[in-house]
Amino acid sequence: MMNVLVIGDSCKDVFVYGDITRISPEAPIPVFVPTHEEVNDGMARNVSNNIESLEMTIHTITNDNGIVKRRYVDNRSGQMVLRVDEHDHCLRIKTKILQGIVNNKFTYYGLGGDVKDIDAIIISDYCKGFLHEEDIKHICKHNKNVFVDTKKKLGRWIKDADFIKINELEYQKNHDVLSDEEFKDKLIVTLGGKGCRYKDKVYSVQEVPVKDVSGAGDTFLAGLVRGYLDTKDITKGIELAQRCTTIVVQKHGVATVELKELQDG
User: Fold this and answer.
1) What is the pTM of this model?
2) What are the backbone angles phi and psi of residue 65, rounded to the nearest 5°?
3) pLDDT band at 155 (very low <50, low <70, confident <90, very high)
4) pLDDT reported for residue 50
5) pLDDT digits (tens, 9 = 90+) for 191-241
6) Nearest Cα to Cα of residue 244 among 232, 262, 263, 230
7) 6 has which bridge partners?
8) N or C: which end of the chain has fewer CB within 10 A?
9) Burial 72-99 (b: 16+ CB within 10 A, else e)
10) Backbone angles phi, psi at 185, to 5 degrees
């Protein structure tokens, strides 16, 4: 079975569902009456959950303090009306753990293994403090098959990543760096409902009814890695990633895609 190591910051995704039937008499805002809530792993741990659901062996190195993203969703329309982020920062990865990854041994809460046995490393960096630029640089430089998804402003420190998953808005913000020819084979630019772009080719995606895009980028990343490891062809990885994303956006909340769903489709 494929072995994947995910490194990055995590949170709890809380979805509070409720009814909105009137406007407040005190201010022009809706009155939200909660009915129920759902709690899921978010950010890097959502990537890990998607990796596991695609039947790969997962190892996760992440923060242990409580970042919470709380979303308030209207039952009738399915629309999110408010998001509240709590404790929106975490401690940096421990130096000992980082050195272990660089030196081909990793440990985390007593668990670990040989990095040489890892088929791919995913850096899922939401820029909450767990990974600094130099941390990502060292991981990319000393390991193979490193997939990076980061919210940081990019620089030359990212050049040793094997693949960089980035959305169109982030690409435009980092165009001064990413326009360099050496990044051409590394960049997978997601375009939302239009699909994604790789090496100037747009890979379109099937149009489906969208219920929730929360965590869809994490699902895309997991599918990309699974497809690439299956075929050693990044375009095949893109195709599988888009199939995964097409399924997951039709689900409520932060969800995953199982391999069986892809086979049935």
Assistant:
1) 0.89
2) -105, 160
3) very high
4) 93
5) 988 889 999 899 988 888 788 787 788 999 999 999 999 999 999 999 999
6) 262
7) 60, 122
8) N
9) bbeeeeeeeeeeeeeeeebeebeeebbe
10) -85, -5
CA dist list (Å): 124 to 46, 93, 104: 10, 13, 19
Cα separation, 210 vs 221, in Å, equals 19
The domains located in the chain, with CATH, are: 3-264 (3.40.1190.20)
**3-state SS, residue 156:** helix
CA distance 184 to 187: 6
And the tokens for 32? 């939200």
CA 243 to chain CA mean position, Å: 16
Q: Output 73-79 pairs: Cβ under 8 A, ≥24 positions apart.
A: 73/15, 73/16, 73/17, 73/18, 74/17, 74/18, 74/19, 74/20, 74/30, 74/32, 75/17, 75/18, 75/19, 75/35, 76/19, 76/20, 78/211, 78/212, 78/252
In the block, which residue shows the tokens 């490393």? 121
Q: What is the pLDDT of residue 105?
A: 63
Say how many C-beta atoms besides its own lie within 10 A of residue 144's C-beta.
Answer: 12
Helices (H), 56-165: 95-102, 133-142
Write out pLDDT tens, residues 94-127.
Answer: 888 888 777 766 654 445 566 778 899 999 999 9
Contact, 151 vs 127, CB < 8 A? yes
- Ramachandran bin of 146, using left for φ above 0, alpha for ψ from -120 to 50, beta for the remaining angles: beta
